[in-house]
Structure prediction request, 477 residues.
Amino acid sequence: MQTVSPQQSNARIAPLAVLPVFFDLRGKRVVVIGGSEPAAWKIELLSAAGANVAVYAEEICEELAALSSTSITINSRPWTATDLIDAALAIADIEGDSEARAFIAAAKAASVPYNIIDRPEFCQFQFGAIVNRSPVVVGISTAGAAPILGQAVRRRIETLLPQTLALWAQLAAKVRDDVMSRLSPGPQRRAFWERLADNAFGPRAPDVDDENFSFAAAPRSGRVTLVGAGPGDADLLTIKAVRALQSADVILFDDLVSSEVLELARREAKRMLVGKRAQRESCAQNEINDLMLSLARQGKHVVRLKSGDPMIFGRAGEEIEMLERHGIAVSVVPGISAGLALASRLGVSLTHRDHAQSVRFVTGHSRKGVLPTSLNWTALADPATTSVYYMSRRTLPGIVAELAAQNMSMDTPAIIAGSLGRADEQIWRGTIGEAVEAVAAFPLSAPTIFAVGDALAQGMRNSLRSLHPEHRRQIHR
Prediction:
């Protein structure tokens, strides 16, 4: 096995376009000039942050009129320079350059940081996109270059942070003084805060037991999470999988897990390659089991990161049984299996009301690296079933021979996919009769699946419609 470290930059911090800072506005006076919809949003935001907002506008929009807060005072008149005196911040919605310059001059004279909405050239500070789990507040800035991109980043972060995170942060603020006074510096305090942080990314809200400090003096109990990494594309990871990677102490990952997936893991997590792939040096399953057990007994959160879904041809059952036998807590996070990823990748439905009423996921090799002798080829040759053969690069000719022996038509649609979801992805579309020759162009080490069935025909017609006829059955990278 091999320990892999994330790439480190020589610089302690890369150059910043802007410096993220956070204003404490509770009970402080903030001036807003203008009563437009953009101004109304800023006013509502400032009020939510605890500011006493003084608005100066001759006309106000419906949104602003509908705001109900004792912290908002509307002055129905033009603003003057003296209105900015003693303000913590000054924000304005001004279109004309001459008035904008007058506003800036007044703000500078009063030593007040200023912002003119949607005019970055007239701003000392900017509002970013916000993820609100107060007291956890995440601010996102693109330095005014691409606000829509900032909103997209916000949406991505929103999916990663559970709504209950706010309650856990409130609990942290509540017990902080007690933690500092009752727990010794070092391991005890770290144990308490690490457990709170782990729970904060779980599905539940805190309860009174989470204020109990006694566990911090006890040895930390380890656990293992089996996580499905999908076929390779990091965008196909589940939110729960990302959270597991972000809380891991050690990650034991397969050779087929992509570097893009590993990049989502916690930087401090130790990464250990325990991959198993045909014709390559690899770890035995008993070695992986022993390593998981040893690390969990040290109190580590171990993530066993498997390509695809851990419960499909991933030997997860053996690992779960071993861990439970030794009293180690184990949980499973599902992933997108290669067969399902192939279907979505090509827009091919694995089932069809008229052609296929069932789907089979079939292992393409046994412990000995050949076709399993226990496969029911009569059932697999059923034209009303779509079959997806995993790990079938070497055994595909044998699969075709067995199907032919069951009188399955050699014109049955077939797809071969190798390294699905990766930069070196290969996909071939054709018929069973052509597949034996086509698979020779796929590397022996490539993770390969072979899909067979009449239901694939419609999807293949759709996906090939834009290709020149002479290219329709060759390999596409």
Remarks:
- Residues 165-182 form the longest helix (18 residues).
